[in-house]
Write a structure and sequence with these properties.
This protein has 267 residues and is mainly alpha-helical. Helices cover 72% and strands 0% of the residues. It contains 13 helices and no strands. The longest helix is centred in the middle third of the chain and has 22 residues. It is globular.
């Protein structure tokens, strides 16, 4: 059988990644971009509340596709996580970096969020039900796009990927156990990843019911804050508040389980 033309459609993503790492074929790279662009689109849509105040979904997806092509050249299956996870993590980081370049002031965001939260409480008491976003903006005489911008900025300040938490914890514990240059070749590496995942699952189980639901809806079902608010029939600020509290608890749980001082430096 001739190998001049590889039947890419019959190859798994993993096989195709290995083939690209070996050959750096442009044709294979194009095929991989087609297969993985759904990850870029999914993350872009999930996190759209963060950036819609200053750019469009299509622009973020375009940036994501460029990042995807670069990651295909850097990816090493023996050192990195599964490619979908690797790409998702980088995509989240990309969006957060783009948003941070807008030079948002956290103090002003918190102040504006407090005003919105107070308005939500007042309207809830007055009408006997949680108001929708438009009602809150109207109550405050705030343009709706300004309201959405504040919500998006607040989401940015509270968004922390569970992957990032695991990555930080894994790096800290690996540094304490295995010389960095040898870490990826050690049997302890795979065991450590499993151990961290198990601790994360235990940490999620220790959360309050509503916190567990929000973590599941955001990271598993990949709903955004607005969609979660609709599902739970609470305000967007409340969802953001619960999400932040849950993430803080998970970080503390992991640090406690692995006896790591919060904010400790690597090395």
């Amino acid at each position: 059988m001739s190998h001049s033309k590889v039947p890419y459609e019959n190859m798994t993503n993993e096989e195709l990644l290995e083939e690209y790492a070996r050959t750096k074929s442009l044709e294979i790279k194009q095929e991989l971009v087609v297969r993985y662009v759904y990850v870029v689109r999914t993350i872009a849509l999930q996190m759209r509340d963060i950036y819609l105040g200053f750019t469009q979904v299509e622009d973020i997806i375009q940036e994501g596709v460029i990042a995807l092509m670069n990651l295909l050249d850097k990816y090493d299956s023996t050192k990195n996580a599964k490619f979908e996870t690797y790409l998702s993590r980088r995509m989240r980081g990309l969006i957060i970096d783009i948003a941070r370049k807008q030079e948002w002031g956290s103090r002003n965001v918190r102040k504006s969020m407090k005003v919105i939260e107070n308005a939500v409480s007042e309207l809830t008491v007055k009408n006997g039900k949680v108001p929708d976003s438009k009602a809150v903006a109207d109550y405050l005489n705030m343009p709706y796009d300004k309201y959405q911008e504040v919500i998006g900025k607040n989401s940015l300040l509270s968004v922390v990927s569970l992957d990032t938490i695991l990555e930080e914890a894994q790096e800290k514990k690996r540094t304490a156990q295995v010389p960095a240059a040898e870490a990826e070749q050690q049997p302890e590496e795979a065991y450590l990843r499993r151990e961290l995942s198990e601790v994360l699952i235990q940490g999620i189980e220790s959360l309050k019911d509503k916190e567990k639901i929000i973590i599941s809806l955001y990271y598993v079902e990949e709903l955004n804050m607005r969609e979660i608010a609709q599902v739970l029939e609470v305000s967007e600020p409340r969802v953001s508040q619960i999400h932040s509290a849950a993430i803080k608890k998970l970080k503390e749980y992991i640090e406690r389980e692995f006896h790591m001082a919060p904010g400790s430096k690597k090395g």
